[in-house]
Specification:
heterodimer; A: alpha/beta; FAD/NAD(P)-binding domain; D-Amino Acid Oxidase, Chain A, domain 2; 8-stranded mixed beta sheet; 11 helices; about 30% helix; B: alpha/beta; Leucine-rich repeat, LRR (right-handed beta-alpha superhelix); 5-stranded parallel beta sheet; two-stranded antiparallel ribbon; 8 helices; Distal membrane-arm assembly complex protein 2 (chain B); LRR_dom_sf (chain B)
Chain lengths: ~475, ~230
């Protein structure tokens, strides 16, 4: 018993000492002269309130943030928070993109978006100037796009070019003879018609645009947070339509942002949520309850955006096409362009539906190049029969399985979730225009400059496709 | 009042003697009588208003003599008068096509090129040292492809090899000057690629300009008169 008492006594003493030292520390921290450590450090967490929460920090999300801050009527009037799950952007589509911009689309809205983006990139140092930073060098190559069409696509290409010229794009049609004249390294077998963009088309460095947007947007007062959105807390309201049907409208009140490698999360109270999550947009939409309902109804219409893996290969060909080479898109879907001054080229090909690779990871399939890309390239450009692949990478398209065009604007039922996603491979080149459109929708209530009503969510329920014919 | 001041000025430099005059001349080692005469003249000009006025008058006389001789194909140059206006007889030349434009050191930009692209018979264009001409501007030059034979982009700070790639539309180009482009990453390789791209064109670029920095007044007058085929 004496033993037990002594051990208990000793344990009690040790505990008491620890407690005393803790109390001493607390008193010391309250007194002036040292840093106050009473409250836990939350500098890695997002703020507790924000007017707009943008899910996704790629080029589309940053573009929406930029235009929201640019078009706000009062300085500091809108608080914007951008939540990005991966600061290294290792899987984000923006950084892995080939970086092309072209106006050769079939939809007038797409052409206008591209034209605006071209003027945005041309004047990028006026838009994105930050006083302490050097001017941005986008490394833009104004070499244009050359699209080749076979016999069966020639009529469609002609009508597309007519629409493009009407919208103000500088595109011209070329016959196979003119093609051989201008680009002697092309083999025009199987080509009936070609369309060549003369101005405002080419490729640039997407990282530079991303960094430029990032630093400008930070200087305008947008908050950044690295974390994953795990939950939306929303409230519903039942309303009756004019036909006396009941409709449940939802409003998102809180966004739960979870930190990396921990269970810690921060509920952010917000007024508007923007889904710019690219390849992961469908998951974010599902979190908000979009698509939870009987199929065929508006509640049951899911966001039809899914990630699709695309490969890009870089090769060296010493006798390849010269400095004037545009980005050539073949009749088979294979495309290539020059990269730098040293006879390097990069390109790839969109796989058919059967050949679609598994988007679970970004591993590169080199056999795909050998079997599905190289034969078409070698046919079109005989110089490419001898080439050596240097490197390759893979990236995601946020592919809209419905009609391969973007989704922009509010959801009809979840009234404060706006979409800016699903651009299926041309999100980078349309980001400035789309960002401005979404900002106008939020601040003014409707599209002011470019009318993107064909891109609203409603079309998935109504079954009206806004089909884009020129996809690479 | 003037006399003592003058005498003071006369005395002090005299005392400095030869060293003072040499320093005033600015030359490191004055050699030859000509240099000595010039520095003496400069020294006098700096110290006497009368000498300065006389030299100014003589310079004006020289300039008007040069202007008299400076005629283009036997016609006077049409210049703006002291109010910046052109004389009404300029309107007689409305139908005459413009063959050469010298926009060196001009602040022309992307939108400003609208004015040049309307000139359907332009044969020679000089955009030397234009600070706002960049790759985007070069991509606009293709409408001049039928007539343009001479183009100079020397010294433009924002033109890189990416913009030079869109000059391949200009198949009638016979002379292209791409010297002194600081934004071009590899001038030698770029010159080779541009020469391959435009086989009929003489590309003047970087061979002799490496290491030699020519001042603007010593650059060859290749754009003063248009080159006719």
């Amino acid at each position: 018993v004496a033993h037990a008492g002594r051990t208990v006594g000793r344990l009690g003493e040790g505990d008491w000492d620890g407690k005393v030292s803790e109390i001493k520390k607390k008193i010391k921290s309250i007194l002036p002269g040292t840093s106050c450590d009473l409250l836990p450090d939350t500098s890695h967490l997002p703020p507790e309130h924000s007017d707009v929460v943008i899910v996704g920090g790629g080029v589309l999300g940053l573009s929406v943030a930029y235009w929201l801050k640019k078009l706000e009527s009062r300085r500091g009037g809108i608080r914007v928070l951008v939540v990005e799950q991966d600061y290294t952007y290792s899987q984000a589509s923006t950084g892995l993109s080939v970086g092309g911009i072209c106006q050769q689309f079939s939809l007038p809205e797409n052409i206008q978006l591209s034209l605006f983006s071209a003027s945005f990139l041309r004047n990028i140092n006026e838009y994105l100037a930050v006083t302490s930073a050097p001017p941005l060098d986008l490394r833009f190559n104004p070499s244009g796009y050359l699209l080749l069409a076979s016999e069966k696509d020639a009529a469609a290409m002609e009508s597309n070019v007519k629409v493009q010229k009407q919208e103000g794009a500088k595109v011209c049609l070329m016959s196979p003879d003119q093609l051989r004249n201008k680009f002697p390294w092309i083999n025009t077998e199987g080509v009936a018609l070609a369309s060549y963009g003369m101005e405002n088309e080419g490729w640039f460095d997407p990282w530079c645009l991303l960094q430029g947007l990032r630093q400008k947007v930070e200087s305008m007062g947008v908050f950044f947070c690295q974390g994953e959105v795990t939950r939306f807390v929303s409230s519903s309201q039942r309303m009756l339509t004019t036909d006396d049907e009941m409709v449940i409208l939802k409003r998102i009140h809180e966004v739960h942002v979870k930190m990396d490698h921990s269970l810690e999360y921060q509920p952010v109270e917000c007024a508007i949520v923007i889904n710019a999550a690219g390849a992961w947009s469908a998951q974010i939409a599902a979190l908000a309850g979009i698509g939870k309902g009987p199929p065929g109804t508006l509640q049951g219409t899911k966001l039809p955006v899914e990630p699709r893996k695309r490969y890009v290969y870089v090769w060296h060909c010493p006798q390849g096409p010269g400095l004037e080479t545009p980005l050539v898109a073949d009749t088979s879907g294979a495309y290539f362009r020059r990269e730098g001054l040293g006879s390097n080229y990069l390109g790839g090909r969109s796989p058919t539906e059967e050949e679609e690779p598994d988007p679970a990871n970004l591993e590169v399939d080199h056999d795909f190049f050998q079997e599905k890309v190289w034969p078409h390239l070698a046919l079109r450009v005989p110089a490419f029969e001898t080439l050596k692949v240097q490197t390759a990478w893979a990236g995601y398209y946020d592919y809209n399985t419905f009609d391969q065009n973007g989704v922009v604007g509010p959801h009809p039922l979840v009234v404060n979730m706006y979409f800016a996603t699903g651009f299926s491979g041309h999100g980078l080149q349309q980001a400035p225009g789309v960002g401005r459109a979404v900002a106008e929708m939020i601040l003014e209530g409707s599209f002011q400059t470019i009318d993107l009503s064909p891109f609203l969510f409603n079309r998935f329920y109504l079954g009206e496709k806004t089909q884009e014919n020129n996809i690479m | 009042m003037a006399a003592p001041w003058l005498s003071l000025r006369l005395v002090a430099p005299m005392w400095n003697g030869t060293r003072g005059i040499h320093r005033l001349g600015g030359a490191v080692v004055p050699e030859g009588n000509q240099k000595k005469e010039r520095t003496i003249l400069q020294f006098l000009t700096n110290h006497f208003y009368d000498v300065e006025a006389l030299r100014g008058y003589l310079l004006q006389r020289e300039m008007s003599k040069v202007h008299m001789k400076n005629r283009f194909r036997d016609k006077e140059w049409i210049r703006p008068d002291k109010y910046g206006h052109f004389s009404p007889e300029f309107w007689n030349f409305r139908e005459v096509p413009i063959e050469a434009v010298d926009a060196s050191d001009c602040e022309i930009n992307y939108e400003g090129l609208d004015n040049l692209l309307l000139l359907k018979e332009l044969q020679s264009l000089s955009l030397q040292r234009c600070p706002h001409v960049d790759d985007w501007c070069l991509s606009r030059l293709y409408p001049l492809a039928d007539s343009l034979q001479e183009l100079s982009l020397a010294g433009c700070p924002h033109v890189s090899e990416r913009g030079l790639a869109c000059l391949h539309h200009l198949q009638n180009l016979r002379r292209l000057d791409i010297s002194d482009l600081p934004a071009v990453s590899n001038p030698g390789l770029t010159q080779i690629l541009v020469e391959e791209m435009l086989p009929n064109c003489k590309v003047v670029g970087v061979d002799w300009a490496e290491g030699l920095k020519l001042g603007p007044e010593e650059q060859p007058q290749d754009t003063a008169s248009p080159v006719l085929a």
